[in-house]
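Hi there,

I know you've been waiting on this one. I reran it after we fixed the sequence typo, so this is the corrected version. Both the input and the resulting structure follow.
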Amino acid sequence: MTRSTPFSAANLIREADADARTWNALPSSDIVHRTARAIGDRGIDVVMAANGDDALAIVKNLIPPGAEVMTGSSTTLIEIGFDEYIAGGRSGWNSLHAVITSENDEIKRAELRRKSVAADWFVSSANAIAETGEIVACDAGGSRVGAWPFAAGHLILVAGTNKIVPSLEMAMRRVSEYAFRLENARAQRAYGAPSSMGKCVILFREKIPGRVTLVLVNEALGY
């Protein structure tokens, strides 16, 4: 079950002037399964989840007890309850985010954040998924996508099927015409300052078996 937050897409869509009808519809089951196969052919494991609760249970099972875990800022992770779970200290994992936020020295905190992209397990989301198998995410500073290409030992991405589009070209359009507009609205509400599309990563293929897992959720999540 999706947990609505003040920063969920439905609560930002009007001020973001984003076209949900074009960019946030749930695709047919045929498209979802064809996309999952295309992603799998690119060396990325795909696990299907019926809803947010199912997705959270899958992520819990994927990460072993005592593991070092870092999270990339993600409305999707908030909506499935992952942020609440790991912040509550129930996970049994070593949360690097908790270590970073507890550090009062600004210089040390920045260094911890930079090193955190090389965590054993990095959990984040994506902004768009092409039916051809490419997975795309953009970030203002790079903290959410820096782990993707190589740094993290294991990368878990949780994304709703609402992010599936026909092609890589359409995926990039979804980022700029939909996801960025919503993120910009969120940033202005949360921080009083606009966001930017600073760094983008496209996962075309993963060479290391088992390193990247996409938990694909049959719900509209995040942006």
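Quick highlight: The domain at 9-217 is CATH 3.40.50.10420 (Rossmann fold).

Best,
R. S.
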